[in-house]
Amino acid sequence: MKMIPIIGLEIHVQLNTKSKMFCACPNVDDGAPPNTAICPVCTGQPGALPTLNAAALDKGVLAGLALGCAIPDRSAFDRKNYFYPDLPKGYQISQFALPVALDGAVEIQIPTDEALPGRESVRIGITRAHLEEDAAKNFHAPEGIGGRPATLVDYNRGGTPLIEIVTEPDLRSAAEAKCFLQELRAMMRACKVSNADMEKGQMRCDVNISLMEVDANGNHLSPKFNARTEIKNLNSFRAVERAIEFEIKRQQALFEAGTPPIESTRGWDENQGKTLEQRTKETSADYRYFPEPDLPPQNLQSVREAMAQRLPELPSAKRQRLHEEHGFAPNVAALLVANEWDEYAEQAMGELAAWLEASDDEHRSGGDVIAERRTEMSRLVGGWLTSKLAGILVEKNLTLKDCNITPENFAEFVRLLDKGEINSANGQKLLLLMLETGGDPSDLMETHNLGQSVGGNELLTIVERNLQANPDQVAAIRAGKTQLVKWFVGLIMRETEGRCNPQQAEEEIKKQLGL
Ligand code: ADP
Ligand code: MG
Ligand code: ZN
Question: If you measure from the C-alpha of residue 422 to the centroid of ligand 3, how many angstroms do you get, rounded to a whole number?
Fold first, then answer.
């Protein structure tokens, strides 16, 4: 029986507002002393009334627009009832019937080596996005209190704003789920509504997954989906991938044993590498949703208009522009955007483009040549940024933003490489020096004698000496074995320790041999 996975995600993203969703308490990061950012509203004291934080509504609508959703004229909050110590009111204020965003889509790119056939680029439907408050945090006290086992509750997180994003069941593999989450993180960062760091709990994901029988061509045998399991609260890309892989195998085995899976809610055990049954799945009826009587509905018309103005360039558009405007290869553009190196790369390319145009005035080389030269430059910028500089930064535990090398100096460095004034081995040394000192690349190259500075008479003499010392090879070249010219270039590069330009050396050799 050939089966494929059907996957839909529910993602909670913490909104980075200054205060909580329904009270003036600060929206603090983890690390604040427990229960220091609380008030009667967010600890559910009788008689305390919520007021909506306008910034949370703004950010929710902005995120919705980024996800390509329609923003309705009106949204409203509902009470979702359940009992747990981290929920002091006995209900969560959420949105059920009237969310802030509906019916969007996100286009994702899957790297070729991870993509299913024909699915390098897929459109993932967004069912809805709604605002809700987060719950508090339980801690199991390892030693207990007074000799008795104990669970402690920190209410600092209680009442902080979340946006929950629900996708259509459009994903078909663990790799697609990971790519979607990475794209979502990039979008949330671009909109500045959240840093969406999964490791810090700023983005948490529930995975819904079922299997579907297909024929040999991968076509569905039935239009109906099978029962799904929902894996709760995954907090890393890796956990999402592993949980999906595990669940595919588990469900496949159940089908093969003739006992298909039933709807259930499962948890992920990182240490065992397994999903574990928590409970049979609750339905929305179990939550007894009803309209929140303490908050009036929101008119979204003016918010929608204001946020449309604030919608930034999204990662997909940015990648495209890096490719089309600056000549970066698509995979390099993706890497730049994913690591938030795009702004730096663009600034460096801006410097280089200005320089290309200025030098074009002298040579009148025209638009095509500039475009070609720009692509060469982008190859250097992309390569040196994503492999060499990135490697050094990781080693030194630095980020591009707080490193010593300005985009201007980096552009200058790339110019030295492009003009052949320095070779790549010495380029690495120079880059390190730039990082350590924050100095100007041309100055550093000179003071540390890293440039390909052997030229003129010095080069002439070195070539002369090497030709005289190797008469057999010279004779062979004269007899037609011209590939030996390169052998001489190698000799000279070695003698000068890389400080001469190989093209210049080759020209000089040919000149002296009368070729
Ligand atoms: P809830 O989990 O709150 O009951 P829904 O029923 O709307 O909410 O489903 C939530 C998620 O489950 C969505 O991401 C949806 O795409 C996904 N989903 C629904 N049915 C299936 C299915 N049979 N297989 C896999 N995913 C599914
Ligand atoms: Mg769910
Ligand atoms: Zn509060």
Answer: 60
